Amino acid sequence: MSETIFSRIIRGEIPSHKVYEDDKVFAFLDIGPLSQGHTLVIPKEPAATLDQLSDESSAAIGRILPRICRAVMKATGAASFNVLQNNGKDAHQVVMHVHFHIIPKFGPRGLEIDWNPGPFDHAAGAELARKIAAAV
Which residues are catalytic? Predict the structure, then answer.
């Protein structure tokens, strides 16, 4: 994986407003926030997308992510929040290092989503579910 701004933040070469750090995970405030308290949670392991991340680093993020969400909610007073994680340029990923956004929601401030669901074909869905299960 190529060098990213997050690699430099982890190493302390670029200052950040750190909210959490352990041997596997680093969390800090986003400097381009969608709302007050917008926090990024990243693995220290260099992986561009979630499917490239090791089970160990994934487990470390899974263990701490709810705790950081609770802390963001408590500190900001927000009643709702989004957790967003993008993988690849077509999925709107800008920094090619795995990262989770915790975005508090304050009325119109925060993440806005235009959800356009499509139709579902049950026969095709059954076949796709079988393929995915076999790949797991």
Answer: 99
Residue 1: the pLDDT is 63
**How does DSSP classify residue 62?**
H
What average pLDDT does the chain have?
96
Q: What is the pLDDT of residue 115?
A: 85
pTM of this structure: 0.92
CA 85, 71, 16, 104 torsion: positive or negative? positive
Domain 5-114: give its CATH architecture: 2-Layer Sandwich (3.30)
Question: Coil, helix or strand for 131?
Answer: helix
At 19, list the tokens.
Answer: 């909210």
CB distance 42 to 77 below 8 Å: no
Measured at the CA of 98, the angle between CA 95 and CA 100, to 5 degrees, comes to 95
